[in-house]
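Appendix C: a fully annotated inverse folding record. The material below is reproduced so that readers can follow the format used throughout the book. The structure is listed first as tokens, followed by the designed sequence.
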């Protein structure tokens, strides 16, 4: 059975229509591309026990964000291995294994959520699912480039735009499934009607003569609820977020779709070329850096061009992937408290959806444009424009904090959408960049090796955005706590201000809760939580620009000979 999946058995017959391949490639990338909608899961994953709000035993945002990071790391590492394997066995077998890993990863992850075992979620979605991501990512790209040597940028764009657009379908689907399986926790009533006790950093209420752990939802917390309900007190472990059930459904659906797509793959016969097309000679094109010679995988990694492109991809991805991992949480924190009627859970979910739309459009647009602009010039545009845009985000956030207005939300929205067109365009253009420099014969394996840069950026991006965010949150809470009258603080949180660290660790004290008791003129620090990260990302793009400008044609000594 496995032999029937290999490359020798899927060679296309004469007269095969090459346009039958893109739908299968796009279908697989749409499935695995749902990883970009990971932030949709965050609000539910950090409320598995509390449901209405985070309870003391719930996971933190920094804990669950790293699951996304592990998946991206495993994507890059598995792609590096799968690239050579793909050249040997062909895309159908690789795509089938990808379906098993990606779908199965969701099922294992769902079990981890049900049992509240974080390691199972890391193993399932992060490791097993991440391997499925890498296998599913490389299998369509080299296949399409071989079918469309006359339009390498467009071919890569067609495949990889599906990955960028995965969240476009995944985000609303995940939202729908979570809300469908959601069950609200038991509601006890407003805080003013109850007597709450704080012991060991946890809050309790007397329910029928028994102390039950509870969470408190304040006015500023309503917009962050999975399904909005009244402010007040809810009993822990009496509801259901619906996220585990969503994992089980998604795993089954993705497995079936990817398996069907993998069986639709065909590869062109040896020596096949589009009718009427001839391979351009090296550097005869005005687009430059196009070689008519191939470079083997092991030889390619010995060239400076490979490492320059590795740096280009790594830094470009680092600048965007951290934002992707926390997109829903980020826009809610920056604008939710100042524009609560506009930026609610539904608005944040739509924001994630639009990121996917522009990510997808950018992949096809920029990759196709690079056929005319040239790959090097296209990347230079990414980095120069990206530097300006990343630096504008902190300014928009600052203006929102001192003078709240919808216009700053519009500016932020527009800036981030443009950023994500270039983020996606960078992914879609890199296979064609590699094919230009190293030829098409071994591009699948070389592309797989280069995707180790994605693994590194998958660590750097989320680490940077969560580390700097946590420092900003810590600073903001400490500043706000000093502005609140100690007596009022104790009345609100059931403990003195000298127990602030314990109250924060158990998620009783947050910036949004403190703002309810802060003086009226107090500026909400939530809108500036991500400023430091944006400055770092702009600096990384400066380095990426320098590396891109250093790329030159590959020396003849590296060319492949039979």
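Designed amino acids, in order:
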């Amino acid at each position: 059975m496995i032999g029937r999946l290999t490359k020798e058995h899927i060679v296309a017959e004469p007269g095969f229509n090459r346009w039958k391949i893109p739908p299968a490639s796009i279908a697989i990338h749409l499935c695995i591309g749902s990883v970009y909608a990971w932030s949709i899961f965050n609000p539910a994953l950090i409320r598995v026990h509390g449901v209405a709000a985070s309870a003391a035993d719930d996971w933190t945002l920094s804990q669950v964000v790293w699951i996304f990071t592990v998946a991206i790391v495993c994507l890059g590492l598995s792609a590096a291995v799968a690239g050579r394997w793909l050249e040997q066995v062909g895309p159908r077998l690789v795509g089938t294994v990808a379906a098993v890993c990606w779908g199965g990863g969701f099922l294992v992850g769902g079990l981890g959520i049900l049992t509240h075992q974080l390691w199972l979620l890391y193993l399932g979605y992060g490791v097993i699912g991440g391997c499925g991501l890498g296998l599913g990512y490389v299998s369509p790209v080299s296949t399409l480039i071989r079918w469309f040597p006359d339009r390498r940028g467009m071919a890569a764009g067609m495949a990889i735009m599906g990955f960028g657009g995965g969240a476009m379908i995944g985000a609303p689907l995940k939202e729908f499934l979570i809300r469908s399986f959601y069950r609200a926790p038991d509601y006890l009533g407003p805080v003013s009607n109850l007597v709450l006790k704080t012991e060991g950093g946890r809050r309790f209420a007397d329910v029928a003569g028994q102390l039950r752990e509870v969470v408190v939802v304040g006015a500023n917390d309503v917009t962050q609820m999975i399904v909005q309900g009244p402010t007040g007190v809810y009993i822990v472990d009496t509801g259901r977020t619906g996220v585990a059930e969503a994992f089980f459904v998604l795993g089954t659906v993705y497995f079936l779709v990817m398996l069907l797509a993998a069986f639709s793959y065909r590869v062109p016969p040896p020596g096949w070329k589009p009718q009427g097309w001839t391979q351009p000679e090296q550097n005869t094109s005005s687009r430059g850096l196009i070689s008519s010679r191939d470079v083997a995988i092991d030889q390619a990694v010995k060239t400076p061009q490979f490492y320059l492109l590795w740096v280009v991809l790594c830094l470009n991805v680092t600048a965007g992937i951290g934002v992707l991992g926390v997109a829903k949480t980020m826009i809610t924190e920056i604008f939710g408290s100042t524009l609560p009627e506009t930026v609610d859970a539904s608005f944040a979910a739509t924001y994630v959806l639009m990121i996917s739309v522009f990510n997808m459009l950018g992949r096809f647009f920029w990759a196709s444009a690079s056929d005319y602009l040239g790959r090097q010039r296209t990347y230079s545009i990414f980095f120069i424009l990206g530097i300006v845009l990343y630096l504008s985000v902190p300014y928009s956030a600052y203006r929102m904090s001192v003078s709240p207005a919808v216009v700053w939300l519009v500016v932020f929205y527009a800036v981030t959408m443009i950023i994500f067109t270039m983020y996606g365009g960078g992914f879609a253009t890199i296979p064609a960049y590699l094919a230009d420099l190293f030829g098409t014969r071994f591009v699948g394996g070389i592309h797989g090796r280069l995707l180790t840069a994605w693994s590194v950026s998958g660590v750097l991006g989320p680490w940077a955005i969560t580390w700097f965010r946590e420092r900003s949150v810590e600073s903001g809470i400490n500043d706000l706590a000093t502005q609140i009258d100690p007596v009022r603080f104790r009345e609100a949180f059931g403990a003195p201000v000298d127990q602030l660290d314990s109250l924060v660790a158990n998620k009783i004290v947050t910036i949004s809760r403190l703002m309810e008791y802060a003086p009226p003129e107090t500026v909400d620090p939530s809108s500036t939580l991500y400023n430091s990260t944006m400055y770092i990302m702009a600096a990384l793009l400066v380095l990426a620009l320098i590396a891109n400008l250093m790329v030159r044609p590959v020396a003849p000594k590296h060319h492949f000979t039979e």
